[in-house]
Amino acid sequence: MIVSLTNMYPIAETYINWNLSRRCNFDCSYCSDGLHDNISPLLSETELERAAQSLANVPGKTIFLSLTGGEPTLHKPLERMLRILSEIEGKEFKVCLTTNGSRTIEYFYRLRPFINHLTFSAHLEFFDQESILKKAFGLHNIFGSDLGINLMLLPGKLYEIKMIYERLKASSINVSVRKVRKKNSKIFFEYSEEEEKFLCQAIEGANLRKDLLISIARNSNEMEEKMVTANDINTLGLNQFQGIQCQAGVDYFTIGFQGDVFACESFMQAKKSLGSIYSKKFQWPSKGNFIRCPFESCVCTADIAIPKKESLR
Ligand code: SF4
Ligand code: SF4
Known about the structure:
By secondary structure, the protein is an alpha/beta fold. The chain has helices spanning 45-55, 78-86, 105-111, 129-143, 158-170, 193-206, 230-235, 265-269, 301-304; strands at 2-7, 14-19, 62-68, 92-99, 117-122, 147-153, 174-179, 212-219, 222-228, 245-246, 252-255, 260-262, 275-276, 291-292, 308-309. It has one domain: Aldolase class I (TIM Barrel). The protein has a 9-stranded mixed sheet. Residues 241, 246, 248, 264, 266, 291, 293, 295, 298, 303, 306, 308 line the site of one iron/sulfur cluster (SF4).
């Protein structure tokens, strides 16, 4: 049982993961219905201005803000919201944007001053090999080492993914290969032996930093400490934290597709919202009040990485 988990390389005082909207211009065959559609309304200037006003009041000076979707770059006022955030006095927003790369290189060039890290998730169903490479090299010229590329490996696409992976690696571009889950399921596709072997090599090659220090109670007087990634915790089945003191809802937040703010993904699934980021009345909780985890298990790697410990801070 894990009795404490500490992030050894914090980069901000407050962390926010914001799923802007389901709206996407792609329709990947493996993407769950709950994660994308092409009918959700685009966010308006008023909504994103209100959100910027709320974000100006987030406790802490440095705020890590991860923006995902759907496809976040479809919302026209996004650029304006990022500009407003960059001009808020006394706050530093570290913005991480995940995109399917469908916008032009000129668009990403305009966004560059407001983005600390860009993740390009490349989907072979909507881009051929050459288009992915062209976009990746173009983005690398703008973002350099602040660019990461995720290649989604669909079974049967090993040849294409391997070719792209090797060309990007050879140009020292940060690239990783991702397993894909079946649509509307938590189960991964079945991969061939050759595909599994390549996935293992790609994961090792990515050289992921182990940034979480965990203490595990082996018995009443034996404690073990080690450095791990959130994925390791998942793989080892150590993601059960019920009753532990957790910084979710204190220093870490998740914002859902409708703008509701939650302490973490599990609270989002339980529909227990703290309020809406689009509401003028919304107030962020103060930094002091820790929560005791009411859930049997942590559902996603972002939540697993949130610091936790048995006793109150
Ligand atoms: S680009 Fe991303 S959000 Fe859009 S359909 Fe594909 S996987 Fe889903
Ligand atoms: S489920 Fe939420 S509250 Fe529980 S440990 Fe995970 S992040 Fe913390």
